[in-house]
Amino acid sequence: MSDGLDINILTGRAKEIAAEVDNKNVKDGKLSEKEISVFLAECEKNGIEASKEPWYSKCSELLSKNWDNLKGMVKSQLALQNNDVAVRDATYVAPAPEVALMKQEEAKRAEAKETEVSSLSKPLKLGARSNIRTNYEWSEEEFEKVLDQMLNAPRYKGKFKNSVLQGKAKAFIESGKKFNIDPRILVAISMCESQRGISEKARKLNNVGGLKIGGKYHHFQTVEASIDSIAKTVNTRYQEGFTTASKIAHSGKYCARHAAASWLSDVNSYIGFFDKYYKDEN
What we know:
This protein is mainly alpha-helical. The chain has helices at residues 12-24, 33-45, 56-63, 67-81, 85-90, 97-118, 140-152, 169-179, 183-194, 200-205, 223-239, 245-251, 260-277; strands spanning 5-6, 30-31, 212-213, 216-217.
């Protein structure tokens, strides 16, 4: 932008702020478009309502933005200054070049990570503090073998032979893919919440996740629907910021907080069991 905002049309504290912004960059007595957004952010921090000032119309004219979008820019500048990523992302309107570059690099890293995970010969270790997202290509056959070990190993002496989780490898894998949740945690939660598929609510309600509606255990039409609901619930918690088994346990939004330690211990135990016996067919 060639002309910029002439600082001399400002008065009082606003003029002082503009001068400070100008001094940090090219001191020419004018504010560029980028400097105007910083200036407006500083005005807001200092309690100056820019939209009520006589010089605001000139700012609006130079930026060619309506006040709603301009306010978004102001909030973005404030968020960036405070390193507030959540607010920054929510208020992006016209990101500065360096911010746009940062987001591009972040996207590239995420894409590289996704490629790395999908090309692994073995799944990544899943611990209490591991991210529960996944895109690993699980073998249904090998997955089923692990479930068989967890339910039908000789040492159990047939205790779980009537488990409703028998033969549900496909359901765990498909629900995991659908909601981008590691199916191992779905298995672990199901095992934990349903006594490996033999609890009363598992047998009579097809409810293997301990999920309630209106304070009562929900009756699912199928076990597969119950597994799908677990994945959906875990994904919802993930979007709320509970991105690991540990965070989910202590959130109080899946199990009671007082039971978090024992619940997490059981879930981790089942995940460890799964990892011990899963053999990739590749």
